Amino acid sequence: MTKPIQPTQTTAFYVQAVLSFAVSLTSVVIALVYLPVEGWIRAFLGLGLLYVVTSTVTLCKVVRDRQELSEVSNRVDQARLDKLLAEHDPFKVDA
C-alpha cells in the first residue's frame, strides 16, 4: 500500500506570503492616504480596496476547501479500490 504524498509548507514560504500581503496592502493604503483628491474619492477607493481584500480571502478559502474535499474523495475512492482488490481472488473459478 502506498503512502499518500502530504503537501508540505515551509515556514519561509508562509512568512514570505504574509510579508508580501502586508507590504502590498500597506503600500496601497499609503498611496490612498497621500492621493491628491477629495476625501470622498479616497473613501470610495478605500472601500474598493477592502472589498478586494475580503473577496481574495474568501476565494482562498473556497479553493482550499475544494482541494480538501477532492483529497477526501480520492481517499474514499482509494479505500474502495483497495477493498475490492483485497477481496478479489484471481485464481477463484466460478462454478
From TrEMBL:
<feature type="domain" description="YiaAB two helix">
    <location>
        <begin position="13"/>
        <end position="65"/>
    </location>
</feature>
<dbReference type="Pfam" id="PF05360">
    <property type="entry name" value="YiaAB"/>
</dbReference>
<dbReference type="GO" id="GO:0006974">
    <property type="term" value="P:DNA damage response"/>
</dbReference>
<protein>
    <recommendedName>
        <fullName>YiaAB two helix domain-containing protein</fullName>
    </recommendedName>
</protein>
<feature type="transmembrane region" description="Helical">
    <location>
        <begin position="12"/>
        <end position="34"/>
    </location>
</feature>
<keyword id="KW-0812">Transmembrane</keyword>
<feature type="transmembrane region" description="Helical">
    <location>
        <begin position="40"/>
        <end position="60"/>
    </location>
</feature>
<dbReference type="InterPro" id="IPR038972">
    <property type="entry name" value="YiaA-like"/>
</dbReference>
<keyword id="KW-1133">Transmembrane helix</keyword>
<keyword id="KW-0472">Membrane</keyword>
<dbReference type="InterPro" id="IPR008024">
    <property type="entry name" value="YiaAB"/>
</dbReference>
<dbReference type="GO" id="GO:0005886">
    <property type="term" value="C:plasma membrane"/>
</dbReference>
